[in-house]
Amino acid sequence: MKIKIAAITDVGKDRENNEDAFIICPDLGKQEWDKNLTSSYVPVSEYGSIAIVADGMGGANAGEVASAIATQTVKDTFTKETVNNCIKNGLIDELLQKAVKKADEAIAKRMWEDPSTAGMGTTIVICWVINDTAHIAWCGDSRCYLYHPVKGLKPLTKDHSYVQELIDKGEITEEESFAHPDSNIITRGLGDEIPDSTPEVVSQPLTPNDLLLLCSDGLSGYCPNKAIENVLSSHYTDIEACRDQLLKLALDAGGYDNICIALASLIGDTQDKPAILSWGQKFMIRIKNLLKFQ
């Protein structure tokens, strides 16, 4: 398959500084990091492609420092040699877990060296695409979604948060979580005053025309999944437009928090761009998918 990545971050309307951060690398074999957009679709190499989003916490206590340390540490961990060794030996999940652990340790080290940063922390979500599979690791409430023009939107992560625990217990609905006064409390994350920094790791098979979305809660915390899906459905063939419209969606919802968005579009080896499916094509694919489970 081939991949194209686009990312953006914005301070929002209600904050003075941006504590969100992202970093991407379309080909870990070439180690070309930091760009916010790949100019064209490129083959997914044997080393894979990666995108990382981190949402810093701590306000005056350097949340932006924590998210920057986290993304930089993951970058430093995913060297060409390390990636090659882990893929060959089937240690993909282990490398993702190691990267998050090292990021947590680097943040702790910085706080020890610089007491002015005490209390800082960050969430993190990492998506590593290898061949036709996405490997996702996350800690906190930054999310990863999978979108397909026929199958729709599928969350690949579940928030490590207090309100998610309430949803799981049936005490509140997902709709009620948006207005819950404790919606900012996370149960896992990197840094100080967060009880658990253990990441969860999942894998997701990919098909041509899939779109992966990573985001901070500046988007997902204010915009329901259906609203996000509507934007993806309208713009999935152009991820730059999709990225910009998702940002607009978050800002129009109030822009109360920093916003970070990373998109990865997948197409087949013989495609030049995502397929535009007619209503009839979508209907036939839905029928075929239904028949598979009968």
Summary, kept brief:
The chain is of the alpha+beta class.
Task: Note the main attributes of this structure.
single chain, 294 residues, alpha+beta, seven-stranded antiparallel beta sheet, six-stranded antiparallel beta sheet, 9 helices, globular
Walk me through what this model shows.
The protein is an alpha+beta fold and 294 residues long. Helices cover 34% and strands 25% of the residues. The strands form 2 sheets. Strands 2, 4, 5, 6, 7, 10 and 11 form a 7-stranded antiparallel β-sheet that branches. A 6-stranded antiparallel β-sheet has the order 3-1-13-12-8-9. Helix 1 packs across helix 3 and helix 7 (225-235) packs antiparallel against helix 8 (239-252). The longest helix is centred in the middle third of the chain and has 22 residues, at 92-113. It is globular, with a radius of gyration of 19 Å. The mean pLDDT is 92.
